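Notes, p. 3: input format for complexes.
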Amino acid sequence: MADTAAPSAEEVGVYYDEMADFAKLLFGDSIHMGYWDDEAGQTVSEAQDRLTQVIIDTTGASAGQRLIDVGSGTGRPAVLLAQQTGASIVGINVSVGQVASATALARDSGVSDLVTFAVADAMDIPYPEGSFDLVWAMESLSHMKDRVAALREMQRVLKVGGRLVVTDISEIAEMDPGDRELLFTCFLMSSLEAHDRYPEVVREAGFELVAVHDLTPRVNTTLERVAEGYVQKRDKIVARYGEDFAREVDGDFPRLGAAMRNCLGYLLIVARKPAA
Ligand code: SAH
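Output follows (276 residues plus S-adenosyl-L-homocysteine):
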């Protein structure tokens, strides 16, 4: 399901550089979905940290292990993981700006001995085969045109027996073409995998599946919550970016919120690199 006009890795990097300020205003300290449980009144940021926590718990990472975070965003997930587990992590990212701000975050959080960030493309990871005990990729694969090739590259840098932890949105019900285009444009995505097929794609890339957690009902209201937040923050958005900008994006988040609830899923997949 690759999009023919898929953006290049460089374009994705520039996009994240340019939207950093707006994304922080809208989402908070991380750029990923949230995990909503029965607790009332969770903010998007709190729900994001909860999702990060669910994923950290799933990694089973421990002190002394070496991890790679592929598409490391603001760096907050890697910093939280290192603080809790003592594992060392390198985050790779095509956004030069995010690498700089994530490096500052690691320093300010007192974990720069454990957490570092580097500008690198996930399709060509600059580490030798078998370098890592664990690869985690949260919501970065949808930016990559060839998901199997990206997963194979993650497989290459893993040690035999090492774990892959991937989270991503997926397509549960066919999206309206206009909604799909809006989703791809707003988040500069290259691909969206079918929900039921996703585990098979991980297997195709040479992994052995360990567990597939379907987090859809916990996650798929995120963009609706973001849409609510957008309305509350609209004055601030107008002050910073102008009325014309706000008018252009006013309808986007309600539409994306509904599209997500109706058509998108969310998977947390754990897999292992088998012996050759
Ligand atoms: N994993 C983070 C960020 C998710 S946003 C989190 O969950 O909070 C997607 C991230 O993937 C962005 O930081 C983007 O710059 C990065 N990314 C997208 N394509 C990439 C590629 N080809 N190589 C490396 N990083 C990439």
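The longest strand covers residues 158-171.
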